[in-house]
Amino acid sequence: MSGSEHITRVRKLYKLIFRVHRALPPELRIMGDNYAREEFKRHKTCNPEESRIFLNEWTDYAINIARQMKPLQQAKKKTIGKYIDPKLLDHMTDEQIVQLYELHKAATQPYTNDSEETNSESRK
């Protein structure tokens, strides 16, 4: 794959991920958009093998989320995402495991809309 083809593929995937995120609940969309943005920045200069793995994983992610966001799927399951195979943890670096933990903490915290809190406090 030539350099320009690779760049085109990355851009299309990046845009697809943000389009798929539009169907997510607002709090998950914000978190997902920020996470995807940071990951794509972080992998901007990775080697070709890492790039191949990165693009395959994000493509699988986009397909998985798109399937889960279909109205019929939402009516049936009402869940988003999937569990990580624990065997994958053995192949992750310490930095990746910390990042995964931080993402887990952010995802499991109760959602608070700062603008609503600010508006309600200013009314008091």
Q: Can you offer a commentary on this structure?
A:
The structure is a single chain. The protein is an all-alpha fold. It has a domain at 3-80. It is 74% helix and 0% strand. It contains seven helices and no strands. It is globular. The N and C termini lie far apart (60 Å). Residues 115-124 have low confidence and may be disordered.
Strand content is under 5%
Helix content: over 70%
Task: Tally the helices.
Answer: 7
What's the order of the H and E elements?
HHHHHHH
Shape: globular
Biggest sheet: strands, sense, closure?
A: none
- Structural class given helices, strands, pairing? mainly alpha
The rounded distance between the terminal residues' Cα atoms is 60 Å
Rg over CA atoms:
17 Å
The pLDDT mean sits at: 81
Low-confidence stretches: 115-124
- Beta-strand segment tally: 0
How do you describe this structure in short?
This protein is mainly α.
Keywords:
mainly alpha, 124 residues, 74% helix
Secondary-structure map:
Elements: H1 3-21, H2 26-42, H3 48-68, H4 71-76, H5 86-89, H6 94-108, H7 114-123
